[in-house]
Amino acid sequence: MSWDPQQYLKFADLRLRPALDLLARIPAQSPGCVFDLGCGAGNVTRQLAARWPHASITGLDSSPDMLAEAKRQLPSARWLQADLSTWRPSQPADVIYSNALFHWIKGHRQVFTGLFESLSAGGALAIQMPRNQQEPSHTITNQVAQSGPWRERLAPLSDLFEIWPPDFYHELFRSLGAAHIDIWESIYQQALVGDDPVLEWIKGTALRPYLAALAEAPELQAGFLKEVGLRLREAYPKGRDGVTLLPFRRLFMVAVRA
Ligand SMILES: C[S@@+](CC[C@H](N)C(=O)[O-])C[C@H]1O[C@@H](n2cnc3c(N)ncnc32)[C@H](O)[C@@H]1O
Predict the structure, then answer these.
(1) Gap between the Cα atoms of 35 and 82, Å rounded
(2) How many whole angstroms separate alpha carbon 169 and alpha carbon 163?
(3) Which of 30, 159, 168, 220 pairs as cysteine with 150 (C-beta 3.0–4.6 A)?
(4) Which domains occur in the chain, in start order?
(5) What is the pLDDT of residues 15-53, one digit of tens each?
């Protein structure tokens, strides 16, 4: 599946806020070795570099397009292509940070355990993931995927995301002997403008695998997008001021190694 930096960055300001909220809760003062997992276009990595100017910062992502954009934005950092479902740092990490990646990756118990155990003493693992599986933005996409002429092509995408309730992660980090655990959720009321703004929002993220699966059937892809857009417009009506509110839930966690 390919990622499109331009589509993703259309809502860069709104997507940046939770990244900063997560960053603000990391207790590290002067970490030496910082990793940004799923760094995307690097706009969040820049914030890590600004907070810890003396740290060695590495951004990792599977998308060459995203990494190229990231390198352009922050040439001083190290940029690596990697599959983060299996990657581990080659040296103990002082901060492992990840904004809006891990819901795409399966096996959180094993993956988070591996990353936590890769931290130095006092090191922090900080992760943010959207948790909107029960919201119309996701249920509509799934319903439309299962009910049109595109049904067979989209069937493998019925179980894309892994995300558990907060107590799953709290128990996991407690069982790993974390010295400090901070887990919270926020629902951001995203005020979007324009026609089909919710469709535009998810076109940069959750809809990408569906669009990729229909890339070779442009008529099906257009039909699918039209149907999803129609239903999203009903579920998220535009206010009289022209603003469409999209409630967006995000789960945050910071775990510090003893
Ligand atoms: C929603 S973007 C988040 C980008 C950035 N962290 C931000 O907050 O702006 C998710 C990123 O995760 C990357 N990604 C998804 N699955 C991945 C995997 N298995 N390994 C590495 N990167 C992955 C995508 O290429 C994409 O750049």
Answers:
(1) 12
(2) 10
(3) 220
(4) 5-256 (3.40.50.150)
(5) 899 999 999 999 999 999 999 999 999 999 999 999 999
- What DSSP state is assigned to residue 61? E
In 136-179, where do the E strands start and end? Answer: none
Residue 15 CB less than 6 A away from ligand 1 = yes
Name the residue with tokens 């595109």. Answer: 150
- Determine the atom of ligand 1 nearest the C-alpha atom of 40: 27
Q: Is 196 in the pocket of ligand 1 (CB under 6 A)?
A: no
Phi, psi of 184 (to 5 degrees): -155, 165
Strands 119-130 and 180-193: unpaired
Query: Please, which residues have CB within 8 angstroms of residue 83's CB and are 6 or more apart in sequence?
Result: 62
Give the number of residues written for the chain. 258
Instruction: With 0.85 as the threshold, say if the pTM is over it.
Output: yes
